[in-house]
Amino acid sequence: MLLTKQNAFLGTAFILCCGIIAPIPISGQVPVFREPMSSQFPDYSKTAGTMSSSTVINNANPLGDFTTFGSSKPAYPTINPSAWIIEKYYRNPNASPEEQRRLADEDLRAYEVQKKQQEELSRDINEAFKEYEIHYELPTHSSPNKKYFYQAFEEFRQMLSGAKPLDIKRAVFLQEHSFDTTLQYQGFDRQLQQIVSVIGLKMKQDRILPTDNVGKIMILFKYMADTIKVYSPHQEKNITTYPKTYDFDDFWGKVDYRKMFVSKLIRTGSGQCHSLPLLFLILSQEIKAEAYLSFAPNHSFIKFTDKRGTWHNIELTNGMMASDHFMVESGFIKAEAIQSRIFLSPVSRKETIVQCLNDLALSYVKKYGYDSFVKRCTDLALAYYPNSITAHQINANYFKTLSNFVVYQYSVKKINKAQFNGDQQAQTIITSAKGAAKKIENLGYSEMPAEAYEAWLKSIQRESYKQQSSKEIKLLGGMIEKR
Amino acid sequence: MRPIVLFLFLFVSFGSFAQEQKIIYERAFTELKGMLEDSIPTSFKRAVFVTEDAYRENSLSYSIFNSKITFLTDLCRKISRQGNLIYDESDKDEIKKYAAVFRLMTDTVQFLIDNTRYFVTQPYEYDFEDFWGEKDWSKMFVSKLLETNRGNCHSLPFLYKILVEELGGKAYLSMAPNHTYIKQWSKKTGWYNTELTSHYFPIDAWIMASGYIHLSAVQNRIYMDTLSEKQSIAVCLVDLAKGFERKAKDDLDFIANCSDLALKYYPKYTNALILKAETTKRRFEKIMEKTGATYPAQVFDRPDAKALFGSMEHQYSSIHELGFRTMPKEMYINWLIELKRNKKKYGNKEIISNLKSTPNK
Asked: The complex's ipTM?
């Protein structure tokens, strides 16, 4: 499927619990902000004269000095500005005008110094309080390329709300373009139209009725899994297309995310279980055939019905028709997952668009990590596809990251546990994180390790499966009406 | 004169004997109905006993049955005291109960009486002979299992459920084609399966690999879902009807009552649906017999026959639509053996490592 391992977050609420409790120091530590020391903090209650620095406080009460008023003691302590004022107004009323002006200047300067110190002090205090503040939003940084994601999101919203028609081709392009902005819609569309014209020629060659769904699906299947040779009267030459192969190298896009892109598949002719079914769906939309996406653990494939209403599975990674038996053979599907219909059930067109939106969120995470944009994506996704396992996983990861972030702040700032437990906002986040993890568990989700996945995909080459597949293809071939 | 009296006596006693049987069955039906309608407390143990006792013509004693169960429960308590589990979740005490019951049912366990004597229990084995109770319905019974130490996919999970519930734990029956197994919840692994016929914990893929579980059957929750308390009682009710069917084939009303009531509480129970469809079929066949018809269309001029045929067709097709497929007996046995052969592939590795116990030092 399209989930990276990083996103795989199985119902591990207990790990989360441990993570939350561990970093909080249990010994009741003193609050973060330092207790103001007397050296920094002038005691304004005592110094009516409001002068700075410790010397004021250490000096005796200025009022006490009144006792010496009028005495001949010529004490003008030059260092202490507060003394100047007292001297100025109370001790030396008979100073000369020059002297008085000089004293006033001195006084102003002292006042400036004091004002600056006070400002610094209040900044210190504010910072101390700011440090105490806990952030309940994940930090985010702006990047000019984020706008492509925002624009794509807006278009998804319009498609889902019905303001714009549901268009899988556009949805896939939007997601890939947001990640790799060098892609152009015109080029993407032109390449697809070329494929569509080849399919159209093949349909004509095989005399398939344009109204026959099984016929169209089988031609699409042939295009994906077989070599097609058609004569194009337009270009006056033969066109040959080759089967789309499975790219076993980095098939979950861990090293290069673009490995999972449909544009990469069109360019190179090889894809994986994410891009192959999506290309199939885009093409079926273009030729107006009816096919559906479906999921298995870490996997997606195509489902369609024949004329009798029987469901068939197309496994594009191997170019075969696969039975339900093959799907459960992987051993990683639980009965609960089938009951909740997260696996092996057909996904509607709207839900397929939602899945592209999930891909958008995932590629955003790949680039920028989790933040509130991811939450906006999952909210929208779950509104239109409430059982979307991918959206639930992204949601759970978002809340896990957020709760870890809140817990981290508490642990760094050494705030005691009682305060943490009393923090309503933090508790809500942690409850949501646990709830999101529980939801995934309840849906019966299970994940498949990469080695098991590869072995399972290769197991379809077993003779019994091959025979079954060719039998099914023959059966379906018999159902096609030809003109 | 004497032979006539003897004959009369025999005749009367025979007639009253059949009548008495019906009364026993009616009483069992009323009791199960009471449990379903909440007029008496629900007890799976009691429901199983009542069902079996009715087939055995009231010859079983509930106190003996009960004391056997109590004895086994005590042994389970002793086992859970014997060793410690490698399991560290908060539901450890629950898991210990489950592990003890599993061990008692599947392993040879020794209990010290004093320094010189000890006492050994033998594991319950799968009885490959007539495992669907086609010849002898009592093969399916828990009471038979307790007597002979041999059971099948019906009696073994039933006994497991009874024992776990006696210990205060939770065990749910779960259905597969022609098969019953146990589903339980553990905090560490979530839902897991316990298969008592092969003494193993298979993953869901094994159950689906039988090849007779259609995908829609799982989606519709007719298989592989946990049964509620009421649904388990409904299962007993269908068992009651099946036992009755062996004794009084022609009393279709009682069978229909049982299947209807069971379906009211467990609408997707395939066995009840099949029983109901078969009853309708037999009603139709009776009409054919009466009129001497050789094929169905001959009686279609009778409106009641036509209606019966229509509802029968509808019942069978809805069973098919739900995803039911008949599983041949050979396939069933092969499937059970497949688990023993492919333990590595179909084993639930997590739960197996969880249930390993370490002896106390």
From this structure: 0.74
